[in-house]
Design brief:
- The chain is of the alpha+beta class.
- It is 35% helix and 25% strand.
- A five-stranded mixed β-sheet has the order 2-1-8-4-5.
Length: 319
């Protein structure tokens, strides 16, 4: 199987962005892999051309097989159960919860060799997916400024390019999301929290099991052992798809949730402390106010008592 057929383009329905789904080593597509990206899907369909009716993809023993022996030249669409069809149409074919619709953005490439041409730049970065734009920034004289921009057709290609270092024409270059757009994409976490670990489950065990859902960039179990760990995926949508689920690894049920960054935890703790201090201050001010009222009202019963006493004494003298 050549490089083109290691991934196939799949989307929720027509009009949505395609995502490249990895194939198994035998050239088939696992239903587990497909469900990890598109939950609730029961099958795949495709067309030979824009005028042909849909054809269903053959499913056997939990695996989809290539139409007529080859995946090349086809685009595939998800098939949902009939009960979900109306719901899908009512939501305008929006992706399921946990799978944010990630659109591509311009990526800035820093540290480019000054002699590099746009053709050479395209030849390098096209290995990660189809490019729709390649541009090297130049000055008024036409000389390269040492940086440029690229844009991919689909998000999975963008994720691949962002997930590794690049050596172009004997020079390391950096690919990143421009600062003006970085805030939006950084909100979608790539890391998951794995709870309920036992000491006989190792980092290689986690990597072996969870790699079926997508490319893993890091696996970490803290030392000393504290019954949890972290897994970082190259694609944020894969991490999101696994959250709030239980997975059986070596006979142990592991619970998956989002991994909150330390900065978020510190900020939450700071907010909690501020709320606590505000509560203490509020309660303290309320207590002080009540004490002041109590202090001001103390003479009232005393005076009343004295007045009452005088009245009683007057009555007694009158008698």
């Amino acid at each position: 199987m050549d490089n083109i057929e290691k991934y196939i383009p799949v989307c929720e329905c027509e009009g949505e962005d395609f995502m490249e789904i990895p194939l198994e080593s035998d050239g088939t597509l696992s239903t587990a892999t497909l469900s990890a990206y598109f939950p609730g899907v029961t099958g795949l369909k495709f067309r030979l051309d824009s005028y042909s009716p849909y054809r269903a993809l053959r499913l056997y023993d939990g695996k989809f097989h290539a139409p007529e022996g080859s995946w090349a030249g086809h685009k595939f669409y998800c098939v949902h159960p009939k009960g979900d069809k109306r719901k899908l149409e009512e939501t305008d074919c929006k992706p399921s919860k946990g799978y944010p619709s990630m659109s591509c953005t311009d990526l800035i490439v820093l540290g480019l060799p000054y002699q590099l041409s746009e053709t050479q730049m395209r030849e390098y970065f096209v290995q990660f997916g189809k490019l729709v734009m390649v541009q090297i920034k130049r000055d008024a004289s036409g000389n390269s400024k040492g940086f440029g921009f690229i844009r991919y057709e689909d998000y999975s290609s963008q994720a691949k390019a962002l997930g590794q270092r690049h050596y172009v024409n004997n020079r390391w270059v950096e690919v990143k999301i421009p600062a003006s757009k970085e805030g939006y994409y950084s909100k979608v976490p790539h890391k998951i929290f794995v709870g309920r670990l036992t000491e006989d489950i190792s980092e290689p065990d986690l990597s072996k099991y969870f790699s079926q859902y997508g490319e893993i960039t890091d696996v970490f179990i803290p030392k000393p052992f504290r019954a949890f760990g972290f897994i970082t995926f190259n694609d944020a949508s894969v991490a999101q798809s696994l959250c709030d689920e239980d997975h059986i690894v070596k006979g142990v049920s592991l619970h998956i949730s989002e991994a909150n960054p330390k900065s978020d935890q510190s900020r939450d703790k700071q907010v909690s402390n501020q709320q606590y201090m505000s509560s203490v201050l509020t309660n303290g001010m309320l207590a002080a106010a009540l004490n002041q009222v109590a202090y001001q009202t103390q003479p009232i019963p005393y005076q009343t008592h004295r007045t009452y006493g005088k009245v009683q004494d007057w009555k007694r003298r009158g008698n």
